[in-house]
């Protein structure tokens, strides 16, 4: 519990948990991530999946440690901006597919503005870092 004089570290710890889970999934089940790598990028999709997964794990670790939390929160904000094109690619693919259900299309559309919330939370965590 934070005192009235100390800002809450909860946003940073929430983001650390989210990034740890997502980063782990990049290695455990990489196929869904491969499929949303923008096709305009050079090289193999799997490389981008692994690099972004490693970046998420490293950022989660930086957010979890008080000494590196300020840096980690800034990196989290940048990471959420960097992966936005993949979310756009996913939404675009899902909306064009006749095999994608209406609820899945709604989820894909909802992910786009969610990035704003994630960036905002990362910036809040950066401000609150001790």
UniProtKB/TrEMBL annotation:
Source species, domain of life: Bacteria
Protein name: DoxX family membrane protein
Organism in which the protein naturally occurs: Rhodococcus parequi
